[in-house]
């Protein structure tokens, strides 16, 4: 919680007719003129009135986007309470002396940590002596890149060599995630070799530390469409001291066309020191993976005898390797199971059978045991289990209060596991599970000072969906919050890829809790909260269950007095843009504020013209197949916006460098809502030119975004001290451009 001398706002004024009309905003800059594009496919006709906005190199589009960003900044900065609120967020973001974002335990007990200090804007890569976190030495500081370039940089990934001499670090600019790989000497922290560009995903070291394997995306030539960046990428072998541009292919459709690797699949090679085999993984978002195996001794040879060890029909969701066995999570059962597949002869056996009502969520093969998590029966949170390799029954690992678990990495040969964790009322911490299964605290993650999470209470209920399905809803609020329908509330949801919403709390969130906010999370179908069947019930042709579940949760919050439509905001991020856009177009009366955060709003366009679109066809649908195209059309909120509808206030947030969801999803969506809405409520487009999908954003960027979200809601909810005073409509530079 926050210090006692910082009092929360006690009163929220009712939304009057005058407030509903609101202050006169600067005029929404008119998009550059362009002819609507009409297309008919599989008997479905679509009209795209803002296709021109997809050309991000068009000078008129660029000027319009800059005008939109400036208008949004003008509006948000005019909210009187925003400055004090941002100061509160910044103070709370520093009450924890440091935060761990990632880590790897070395064989000698030292730990490489990606750690952000309280007064820093970015996490650094540091080497500490052990689990007490002492003896810190900085290996990589992204601020060095910002000082040279003027742009924020971030560490995407890091991998230490088996001999602990080198560490390979991916560093990207402005949230782009398009990392260049840099090699550092761990003893001196000095950089060696020239960086290798366009390595989005992490690398795997050779067991003798002489080099590594990696995937490299394509360098676009002049005139090539952006979608070509990710298609037909290849896996390479790099030997230290050699020219990376001469690295040989080791896996991909150019290396061996007979393997049938599709253009949109990302070929990855994976190595383990203790295994005689290597894996080839054609990676997509498909949760039914395909794997190839080959003798590791063939790596670097002109001919590699790759053989398919797992096909997509085997229903393998994820995997790891223990010696010469592949350990897989299978989804044949709705609750999933864990099996062992011999890499020598393909024989299979069950390691962990399905547990009714508790789906397997994660697995990791470590030196002493197989560690795995099971979803709680409520669908919210997980529990950790440990199955020793030397026999015996699996046993639960007691981690009280931790509902979200994120194990830290370790070199092969390290026993036990460091486990990061958090909960709805438990700040992040790091626990040690030793090689015998005993649990102890570590000193790696300090706890915040002056903030007490025990002041919060959590309610998890099941809400009846539109078809009667029981949908979990987590409601987090200060103890004693009255159920009088007058509480400002933010409801969030996701519902894609089988990913579950993870319970967590951070000190910065008390900026909203101490202003009376309720935070609610709808665990919709399409997520993994209740296992495989729950995921598949919000997938492609059944995707509508995702946003219908969300609207059912919103209605529950209103019906039970937690809030009212006038005080209800809703947010969806990334693939959650499908959820939030459709929730809005189906029930515009249910929400006062809609946030679409780096969201997929034009699912048809994204599938066909976003560089990351083809990789997502397995999740949302293939636009070249009728069933897939119909599914994409049904989930496109952009196509469903209707003229003359009273839509809620809308703010779309997007990093212009986003490599996962291209920014024109937000520019087109806001343009169409602004054109169609009859409510006169604001439509804002918040663009950050030094950010991407959220990965790699600085602390100051995160703080500013949180302040904008809360301030915008308090303005729209009618809170005293948050009603802006603005000048009347003004012509923007983009208006003049569009008129030419």
TrEMBL record:
The protein's enzyme class: hydrolase
Keyword Transcription: no
Domain Peptidase S9A N-terminal intervals: 35-261
Stretch forming the signal peptide: 1-20
Protein name, entry field: prolyl oligopeptidase
Segments crossing the lipid bilayer: none
A biological process from GO: proteolysis
